[in-house]
Amino acid sequence: MEVGEPYLSVVVTSRNDNHGGSLLRRMQTFINALVAQCNRHQLPTELIIVEWNPPADRPPLAEALQWPAERTYCPVRIIEVPAELHNRLAHAASLPLFQMIAKNVGIRRARARYILATNIDIIFNDELMAWLSSRPLQPNRMYRIDRYDVMTDVPVDAPIDEQLRYCETHPLRINAREGTFPQTPTGLRALWQDDVAPQGSGISFDDGWFAVEHRDGEAFRWGGERARFVFENPPPDHFLALDIEAGPSLRHQTVDLHFEDETGQVVARGSLSGREQLYVRFPLDARPVQSFTLVTPGRTMQQAHDPRLLHVGLLRCAWVPGPLPWNVVPVGEGVATAEPLSYRQRFPALGEGISLARGWYEVEEAEGESYRWARDKAHLVVCSPGPNRVLRLDLESGPALDHEPFELQIQNARGEILTRGRICNRQIVDLTLAMPAGEPCALTLMVRGGSRVTVAHEPRMLCFRLFSARWVEVPPNNLSGPRFQTRIDWRRTVRRLLQAPRKKLTRLATQLVGVVQGANGASGLAALPQTSAPEEILGPVLLHNNACGDFTLLARENWEAVLGNPEMEIYSFNLDSLFCFQAYHAGAEEVIIPPPCKIYHIEHSAGSGWTPEGAGELMKRLQAKNIPVLSYEETLAYAIQMRRQKRPLLFNTANWGLANEPLRETVI
After folding, report:
1. Concatenated DSSP letters for 518-541?
2. Counting beta carbons within 10 angstroms of the beta carbon of residue 286, is it exposed (0 to 12), middle (13 to 18) or buried (19 or more)?
3. pTM across the whole model
4. Which residue of 51, 88, 329, 612 is surrounded by the most CB atoms within 10 Å?
5. How much is the pLDDT for 611?
6. pLDDT band at 343, cuts 50/70/90?
7. 384/409 Cα distance (integer angstroms)
8. What is the DSSP pairing of strand 389-397 with strand 218-223?
């Protein structure tokens, strides 16, 4: 039966050397599955196998492999690159196969408009093949997909349905845009041992969440603009508690956020300032698996040499039963906030009945003291433990105010000003608040007066810092109503005077005199200038480069625009990623094919290719043989250069893919 020109060319490379262990078995599985899928979905395809530097002591692939009898929709072409051509290349004695040059040989000779570069241990699932058979591909697109690693014993000669069933039920890990993750038996991204959610909680971090990192002894995950949670058997009548902070890509500023369900409908919304403990109530139903996406839109700032956009940092995530604690403040529809639980342990100067809510930054230490910086409109939630109490705060003006005096206004939840006073240098503030004992009250600390100053390399707005907050018992006759009393922290103020540069001594002395004279009345409200945004950092674009050598699909003209894969005479590591950056900057927009479309990768032996477990062994083997490798940092440096120049870098000549070499071809 004649099916005409192929719609898709599938290009792989190999040689009969047992690379990775059981190579012929894995390759036979790949061929059987591909041919069966093409026949099932009537997808006109050609399979091009570039046999590079075939070993002289082993039979060629055409003889070593068994070929399915029915290949109507998937004829096979084997193109041989002989040893004499291989030996012309640097490191030929140590590297038996140059993967990217070999793939270029097949790409250069492909007959179809659309060309897929992949590897010989990949199986495509039914959903992906059905999608391809609908002929959806377009030029100026670079199609990528997540890779699902599976155990080695995929049944070679079994029907395709049995092979796919094995792949679904024997998962190892997922290679996604955000990183490589272990996989649960149900196909979700599994938690790491020290993850930010408890083991067994049914919480999974999906698209948009990056791998676990560590900072100051705490595990955390970065999340992008859209970061999806997946819940397995979520408990009813529970809130999701998130210890979360605004990320560097949003300049650590106040972030509007919302949560979307699977249909894109917003089910909860709120805002985030600094690091906070958010409580979210989701409209959960009886389904065993449900997903919701955290969306944090905003003008982003990329980090240098990091392609990721880091919108939020998640430090803890767990289910908590209702009702919520007394110190929780609603901050939006279905979202409430309170002090992160870990901060009470790290910030013991908070007294009982006092919690920091919104507007506070991370705990810091200097000169043996702990403190937290605050922006304007920072929130306190207080609950007086008994009668005859005043709220005592230890405060100091910050660099965003150039350490100048400012007026501090205390407002209640209704926006009413309870009291106000002037803060100069570091001071102890006693607040007399008319509030019943045992009843929580949300307070807002408003900064009035003072010039806003942009501090170099500091995206946060550090208006003042808090060293301690506690309730103090006073005689009843001192409680005549809401009052604002201050006194100087003499020890610290004198030390600042002694350490200050000469040109600041006069200003500091003037401030000190004002405090001594009792100048704690209200100050005039001046117009606040707008602070300039930090300079944009032009880093590499974020592409799905993870395991891209296993599935990179473009139109012929897009392959030709950058002269194919980079033909560096080194180990192939990161060369496929470098090509993706080239293709993108040559006008090929990245399209990530979403689930349920999948590709499965049959696991090979450790050290024969990159795996999380075998990466160290692989690098040691390459170093022992003096085989050069393109590092990740070098790849990103090239990517940054391309982005800044707004064009791709070209590494090959017009003879890419050995175009001028007559190569023997065998049609199976």
Report:
1. T--SPPP-PPPPPPPPPPP-----
2. exposed
3. 0.74
4. 51
5. 62
6. very low
7. 19
8. unpaired
Q: What is the pLDDT of residue 127?
A: 98
Contact 41, 72 (CB under 8 A): no
Average pLDDT of the residues in 540-565: 97
- Please write the tens of the pLDDT for every residue from 387-430: 888 889 999 999 988 888 889 999 887 888 888 888 887 888 88
- Residue 283 main-chain phi, psi, to 5 deg: -80, 75
Tokens of 28: 């036979």
Question: Model confidence over 46-93: pLDDT tens digits?
Answer: 999 999 999 999 999 999 999 999 999 999 999 999 999 999 999 999
Residue 452 clears pLDDT 80, i.e. is over it: no
Residue 603 burial by CB count (10 A; 0-12/13-18/19+): exposed, middle or buried?
Answer: buried
578: helix, strand or coil:
helix
Preceding peptide of 323 cis, ω within 30°: yes
- Which residues, in sequence order, are CB contacts of 491 under 8 Å at separation 6+? none
3-state SS of 503-515 is HHHHHHHHHHHHH
The whole-angstrom separation of Cα 341 and Cα 355 is 10
Question: Cβ distance 395 to 426 under 8 Å?
Answer: yes
Strand order in the sheet with 266-272: 203-205, 226-232, 289-295, 255-260, 266-272
Tokens of 461: 């707005």
Contacts of 498 (CB under 8 A, 6+ apart): none
Residue-wise burial string across 351-361, b where 16 or more C-beta atoms lie within 10 A, e elsewhere: bebbbbbbbbb
| Other Cβ atoms within 10 Å of 60 Cβ, number | 15
What sign does the dihedral 52-55-58-59 (CA atoms) show? positive
3-class secondary-structure state, position 313 = strand
Query: Which conformational region is residue 252 in: left (phi greater than 0), alpha (psi within -120 to 50 degrees), or beta?
Result: left
